[in-house]
Specification:
Helix content is 41%, strand content 16%. The chain is an alpha/beta fold. The strands form four sheets. It has a seven-stranded parallel β-sheet, with helices on both faces. α1 crosses α8, α5 runs parallel beside α6 and α7 packs across α11. Bound molecules: nicotinamide-adenine-dinucleotide and UDP-4-deoxy-4-formamido-beta-L-arabinopyranose. Nicotinamide-adenine-dinucleotide binds next to α1, α5 and β5.
C-alpha cells in the first residue's frame, strides 16, 4: 500500500488535479495536500467524480512544517509529486519574498520530512522558464540555464539545485528525484470536469483566449507580430495538460521500479513542436467554429521570442510522448470554459 501511494502537494490545482486522475487511472493511490491558496475544492471534487475514488484531501500549508508533518504521520506513501507553489511571474517580480518564502520553504520542508520519515521518491514541477532565451533550439536538458529574469523563475532554478544536491548527499538513504521541466501546459480534461481556474485577469494565453470567446474579456491582445519568427508572433511549445499529467505517472513509476539511471534526473515535457501565438489563435477559431476578437498589441516586456523542447530524452528514456493533438487540446480548453461559465 505505502509503495503505491503518492502524496500530491498542490493537487487541488490545475496540473495537480489532472495528475491525480492519471495516477488513479494507473492504479496508484493518491493523497492530496493543498492549502487552497490558488484553488478551491472543485478540483478535488472533479477528480473524485471522474475516478469514482474518494481521494483523501488535507488542507495544509506545506510551509507549516509541524502541520505538514501530520500528513507524513497519518499516510503511508513512498512517493511525492510537489506542485505546491505560486506561479505568477509578474507578481513574483513585484513581491519576491512571497515567492521565495512559499516556493522554497514548502520544497525544503518536503525534503526534510521525506528524510525524517524515510520516504524516497520525489517529482518536482520545474519549468522551461529555467532556459530563458536559449542560444540553441530546440532546448535539450543539457542546454545551459540562463540567469532567471523573475523571482518565480529563480525559485524553479533554486529548487532544482536543492533537489540535485539533496539527492547527491542523501541518495544513500534512498532519496531519488526527477525534475520535469514543463513547457506551456494548456487544455483540460476531456470530461470538462477539471481545468485551469485563473484568478483575476489571466496572464496566460489560452485562458485569455477562452475568456474572450466566452465574452468575459473584450479582446485578446497578441503581444507582438514583429518578432523574427515566421509570422512575427512568439513561438512556444504548448503541452496538453493530460499528456503532462501522464508524464508524472511514468516518472513516479520509474522511481518505484528503481529504473532511474541516476539519482537525480531532468526531463523536458513538451511536444517538440513550435506553435506561434497567431497559429494558436487561428487553430482555436477553426476547431471551435467561432471568431475571436483579437488585435495586435505591443510586445510584452520579458517575453522570450521562441522556445520549444527537444523531447528525445523523455521519449527514449522515460518512454513518454505527447499524444493529444493541438486541435483536441483547444477543443477541451473551450469545453472547460463553457462548463465554468455555464454556456450551452
Ligand atoms: P496552480 O496554482 O493551479 O496549482 C498549485 C497548487 O498549489 C494550488 O492549488 C495552490 O493552492 C497550492 N499551493 C500553493 N502554495 C501552497 C502551499 N504553501 N501549501 C499547500 N498548497 C499550496 O498551478 P499549476 O499551474 O497547477 O502549477 C503547478 C506547478 O507547476 C507549480 O509548481 C508551477 O510553478 C509549475 N508549473 C506550472 C506551469 C504552468 O504554466 N501552469 C508551467 C511550468 C511549471
Ligand atoms: C504565451 C505566448 C505571449 C497572453 C509563462 C511563464 C512560464 C510558464 C508558463 C510557469 C507569449 C503571448 C500571452 C496574452 C499574448 N509558467 N500572449 N497575449 O509567457 O510562455 O510562459 O507560463 O512556469 O514560466 O512565463 O506563457 O501563456 O503567458 O504566453 O499574445 O494575452 O502568448 O506573449 O508569446 P509564457 P503565456
Amino acid at each position: 500500500m505505502g509503495k503505491k501511494t503518492v502524496l500530491v502537494s498542490g493537487g487541488a490545482g490545475y496540473i495537480g488535479s489532472h495528475t491525480a486522475v492519471e495516477l488513479i487511472n494507473a492504479g496508484l493511490n493518491v493523497v492530496v495536500a493543498d492549502n487552497l491558496s490558488n484553488s478551491d475544492m472543485s478540483g478535488v471534487e472533479g477528480v473524485r467524480k471522474i475516478t469514482g475514488v474518494d481521494v483523501p484531501f488535507i488542507n495544509v500549508d506545506c510551509c507549516d512544517k509541524e502541520a505538514f508533518r501530520k500528513v507524513f504521520e497519518e499516510y503511508e506513501f513512498d512517493s511525492v509529486i510537489h506542485f505546491a507553489a505560486f506561479k505568477a511571474v509578474g507578481e513574483s517580480v513585484a513581491d519576491p519574498m512571497k515567492y521565495y518564502r512559499n516556493n522554497l520553504l514548502s520544497f525544503m520542508n518536503i525534503i526534510d520530512l521525506m528524510r525524517e520519515f524515510g520516504r524516497h521518491n520525489i517529482v518536482f514541477s520545474s519549468s522551461a522558464t529555467v532556459y530563458g532565451e536559449a542560444d540553441e533550439l530546440p532546448v535539450t536538458e543539457q542546454t545551459p540555464r540562463k540567469p532567471a529574469t523573475s523571482s518565480y523563475g529563480n525559485t524553479k532554478q533554486m529548487c532544482e539545485d536543492i533537489l540535485r544536491d539533496s539527492v547527491a548527499a542523501y541518495g544513500g538513504e534512498g532519496l531519488k528525484g526527477i525534475a520535469l521541466r514543463y513547457f506551456n501546459p494548456i487544455g483540460a480534461h476531456p470530461s470538462a470536469l477539471i481545468g485551469e481556474l485563473p484568478r483575476g485577469v489571466p496572464q496566460n494565453l489560452v485562458p485569455f483566449i477562452t475568456q474572450t470567446a466566452a465574452g468575459v474579456r473584450e479582446c485578446l491582445s497578441v503581444f507582438g507580430d514583429d518578432y523574427n519568427t515566421p509570422d512575427g508572433s512568439c513561438l512556444r511549445d504548448y503541452i496538453d495538460v493530460v499528456d503532462l499529467a501522464k508524464a508524472h505517472v511514468v516518472a513516479i513509476q520509474r522511481m518505484i521500479d528503481d529504473k532511474c539511471k541516476e539519482g537525480y534526473e531532468i526531463f523536458n515535457v513538451g511536444t517538440g513542436r513550435a506553435v506561434s501565438v497567431l497559429e494558436l489563435v487561428n487553430t482555436f477559431e477553426r476547431v471551435n467554429e467561432l471568431k475571436l476578437n483579437y488585435k495586435v498589441a505591443p510586445r510584452r516586456p520579458g517575453d522570450v521570442v521562441m522556445i520549444w523542447a527537444d523531447t528525445a530524452h523523455a521519449n527514449e528514456e522515460l518512454g513518454w510522448k505527447a499524444e493529444r493533438s493541438l486541435d483536441d487540446t483547444l477543443r477541451s480548453a473551450w469545453a472547460w470554459e463553457k462548463h465554468v461559465r455555464g454556456i450551452e
